[in-house]
Amino acid sequence: MQVEKFFYDNKSVKLFAYATILWGVVGMLAGLLISIQIYLPAANFGLPFTTFGRVRPVHTNAVIFAFVGNGIFMGVYYSLQRLCKARMFNDTLSKIHFWGWQLIIVLAAVTLLAGYTTGKEYAELEWPIDILITLIWVVFGINMFGTILKRRESHLYVAIWFFIATWITVAMLHIVNSFELPFSWIKSYSFYAGVQDALVQWWYGHNAVAFFLTTPYLGVMYYFLPKAANRPVYSYRLSIIHFWALIFLYIWAGPHHLLYTALPDWAQSLGTVFSIMLIAPSWGGMLNGLFTLRGAWDKVREDPILKFMVVAITCYGMSTFEGPMLSLKSVNAITHFTDWTIAHVHVGALGWNGFLTFGILYWIIPRIFNTQLYSKKLATTHFWIGTIGIVLYAIPMYWAGFTQALMWKQFTADGTLKFQFLETVTHIIPMYVTRSLGGLLYLSGVFVMVYNIIKTVKSGELIANEAAEAPALVKSTGHAKQYWHRWIEERPIQMLVFSLVLVAAGGIIEMVPTFLIKSNIPTIAAVKPYTPLELQGRDIYIREGCYLCHSQMVRPFRDEVARYGEYSKAGEFIYDHPFQWGSKRTGPDLARIGGKYPDSWHYNHMLEPQSMSPGSIMPSYTWLFENKIDTAITPAKIRAMQTLGVPYAKGFDQEANANLMAQANKIQAGLKVEKLDVAADAEIVALIAYLQRMGTDIKGVKSLPTTTK
Amino acid sequence: MIQKYFSKHNCVRALVVLITIGFSTNDAFAAGPPKVSDLSNPLAQVLLVIIVGLLLAIGLLANVILGAAQVYLQRFKDERKKSGTTAAKALMVVMICLTSVSLFAAATPADPAATAVVETTIAGLSFTSFYVLLGVIGLELLIMIVLLINLKKLLTKESLVMAEAAIADNEPIVVRESAFIKWWDKVNSFKPIQEESTIDLGHNYDGIRELDNRLPPWWLYGFYLCIIFAGVYLYRYHVAHSAPLSAEELSISLEKAAIDKEEYLKKSANNVDENTVTYLSSPADHEAAQKIFSTICAACHLPDGGGSVGPNLTDAYWIHGGGIKDIFKTLKYGWPEKGMKSWKDDYSPVQLAQLASYVKSLQGTKPAKPKEPQGVLYEEKAPATKAADSTKTPAVTGSDKKAVAINP
To answer: A73 — phi, psi (to 5°)?
Structure first.
């Protein structure tokens, strides 16, 4: 058998490692800032691009797609080459992949801070960037598959199964959820509306967690954990079962983000039961990880890398058990819209993704620099600081979420709400402060790592091209007495196709009926399209990220009906491109805010929230009073909406601005009576128009249709 | 073989229990819309979950014991050839195992009892249901205790034998693992690390080897159980309609709340409404009201009632009437189209009465920056005490319309 010599590309691994660290620090700093803004509104600095609503998406996008994203590529580029016994397919593609991804991140940060957002959580980036993401993802795919195809190893290791499933599923999710109709060079409206948009968005959102934060990291875990522990993988058959079960079941669970909403009940129930069925496949990964350490636990005591990995896997196990529990309606009724969700995702993000990344960084960097880790002690210190940070972050948030939900739900004996919304917020402010402390600790741990890694890098020299050798691939002959699964392990293309079939099934079965069967979203005759002014106001609402703190979904609970009004119906959202149901109530629900307060109240409240609700933690939006509504774009917006099926009269795009000004003048005149002077075309006027419209369509409608059971 | 039989048997039993739960609800609700049954009682649900969980635990324990006993039996056979000394002990262990098996078998009839309870459709959780369910749990706990005692005995016996064997062979005593570790190994059906090479698949990926350990049984059965749960869940909500969907849940809770409120108000002094409300003059009432006023009302009417977004409350002009009953009504139902929210879900009738009285008491005070009067001059039907302070010459006409104009 002929032995071939070749070189591993370590330079790309190094670049991705550096990017991981850099964006990790940036993302976590943004997180720390917004955590402080929650109890210190002054920390919003009164500037549009430093205000919570714009920084929060920067935090989530930076941490998910920049920190973890680069972490994935670092892990894949390192492990894939070694598992395939081949250099990455093409060095130019590696370069394009790396720099392309960093460009996306920078563009994302700039556009998000400038207020360009689609208003769909974790998919906020606008259409040009969406296209760029697709292209770079394809480059990554070609590079990965090229490497797999020219491999010198006959079978694909479990890590690669996960990489393949990740690649194809993320591609599918990104493309389907990013269907949007551009109306300017950078802005667009979601192709879907209301309930359908919500379903697609959370199908995407949930599976971004599944296939961006989970499966690729399980893949890298399968490589780096046995390597670091020097132990064989616990169970091959567990790998097989949990891999296929995981990718198949995960995709269905999206609707558990929409329990008790206007989504049809059958879809909600599917979300619940598939989440419950997910417990075992998720835990399969945890068990295979932890049991691989059998016989190596003495090493865990010594080795900070294994320590990081053990905590990471444990956090993975905890959050994948907690997730299904949160999908049970009775639990969800308490946890949803509260800080519980925040705690839950941070156990996953800080514990599983963060700690696994740190473990891998500590493992990779000395190896590609042909040196020893500068200080094991500092790494251990990092581990402890980080762990305490996670605990200090999570516990107050669980506590805050639980407390607030119970306060929301409390009634006095004579049937009135016991607490005003604001009281429930001010009550949990100490918990918010503690959370910042936990986050700060975790971030300081990262800085310790940065120092340690700089020192390590300085003590060694990069082996940009690491020499390796392996026998050329020989076509295996026959499968006498082979494990049945070995068949597909030799066929990456079949594996890709089969994965796609499995992951596509759940989405199709949930979406197609919701889109096609009318009874799922019964129409309400009283619900009319937004006026041009309201539409402009809605776009300002989206731009400022209001949806990040305010939901627009009154759930059918006694307390919500008492606090906010009639619960939300599916038919109310048919003109909402995109939907704005939200996922967190840092402020109260706004679905029925229309007509609740006078225009002047909104005016004063947006200018200085504390003047209208003393103790409020909402930032002020002073620039809305100076900025002018961009009326030049109104016709394009109307035409885009018409294309999407919103029934504006033919030629309405040309009358839209006249209509807009008429309504704006009316609001201006009303404010003038209250001695509030503002230009009729100021953005605040449009926003007030939108707020006053919200939820008013069905007022006085006697019989409301109910959604299918 | 026995082991296999048992794990399967156990699993099948769990399945039967769950399916009967599902179907019994179907029978109960075949007649029509959801009625309240024992099964929709949260307590019953919790108890059933505990019962099923304990059953699983019993199955696992029995599994462990049988495994241990088999090892023992093997040794017993080997030893018998050499000498008869340990035979008696081994025999005893087998006896213990048999008793535990018979005890385990005795537990089986308990399950039909559990399902039988489920089938009765008495409204609410009746005493019988409750105690039977509790009894089943008690019985299961008892079985577990017996099993644990047996296991402990078995393990001590085994280590005793091992120690004896070690002394006999004149070998150093190896450090023995704790009972927990043994149980843990069994529960996960671990292969001892020394025997690892027998399950090494010979794969080598960049130095990573793969073992072919059995799936941890509890994991596998847990997975099955989750799948069964999914079936039962969908069946209950969407086929049998024996569990309330979101909107039904709301109407149930609203009905219950209405009944509770009525009951409470019957007995309570809180039963004030716009017809019965009177002016409350005690300082305590005013103090309580002032608290609410400064947190809620002050936003629009200013802390001194001078008015900003909302009208001035200190003058004698009222848009919706200035009598105590009118103010109470305004607070209770609001004038949403004019920006005044309804507060009846936020504050109790007594609190609203206090608030109305406080607002009334503001009349005639001198706020720092009074808003111009709106509405019409209100005069109490009874001889006015501090009404018309006619030094002001308000532009009454049209101010009402102005307020309307705020909200198109």
So the answer is: -65, -40
The token duo for B268 is 């309570």
Structure tokens given for B130: 């409750």
Chain B CB within 8 Å of residue A265 CB: yes
What's the CATH architecture for A3-469+490-510?
Answer: Up-down Bundle (1.20)
Q: Which residues of A129-139 are buried (b: 16+ CB within 10 A; e: fewer)?
A: bbebbeebbeb
Residues of A in contact with B230 (CB under 8 A): 273-274, 276-277
| Sign (positive or negative) of CA dihedral B214, B218, B221, B225 | negative
Q: Compute the distance between CA of residue A665 and CA of residue B23 in angstroms, rounded to an integer.
A: 64
Chain B residue with minimal CA distance to A238?
Answer: B215
pTM as predicted: 0.78
A516 touches chain B (CB under 8 A): no
Give average pLDDT by consecutive 10-residue segment, chain B, 408 residues.
Answer: 45 47 40 47 75 84 78 70 51 50 41 39 60 84 85 69 57 62 85 85 90 93 96 94 90 90 76 81 86 84 85 87 87 80 83 88 85 82 45 39 34
Which among A238, A244, A409 is the top mutation candidate for probing chain B, defined by the most B β-carbons within 10 Å of its own β-carbon? A238
Residues in contact with B49: Cβ distance below 8 Å, sequence separation at least 6, in sequence order: none
For residue A128, CA distances in Å to A23, A184, B73, B331 come to: 22, 10, 72, 52
| Under 8 Å between Cβ of A153 and A473 | yes
Q: Is residue A578 reached through a cis peptide bond, with omega within 30 degrees of 0 on the bond before it?
A: yes
CB nearest A595 (choices: B222, B337, B405): B337
- Per-domain residue ranges of chain B: 2-248, 283-406
ipTM for the assembly = 0.91
Give the residue from chain B lying closest to A418, CA to CA. Answer: B346
Shortest Cα distance from A674 to chain B (angstroms)? 7
Distance from CA of B182 to the nearest CA of A (A): 14
A600 touches chain B (CB under 8 A): yes
CATH topology of domain B283-406: Cytochrome Bc1 Complex; Chain D, domain 2 (1.10.760)
Please report residues of B whose CB lies closer than 8 A to that of A558. 250, 253-254, 257
Closest partner residue to B341 among A233, A557, A596, by Cβ? A596
The full set of domain ranges for chain A reads 3-469+490-510, 532-693
Note whether B344 contacts A416, CB cutoff 8 Å.
Answer: yes
Q: Looking at the complex, does the CB of residue A77 fall below 8 Å from at least one CB of chain B?
A: no
Alpha carbon distance A18, A456 (integer Å):
13
What does the alpha-carbon distance between residue B124 and residue A482 come to, in Å, rounded to a whole number?
58
Structure tokens at A426: 């001010």
Q: If one looks up domain A532-693 in CATH, what number appears?
A: 1.10.760.10
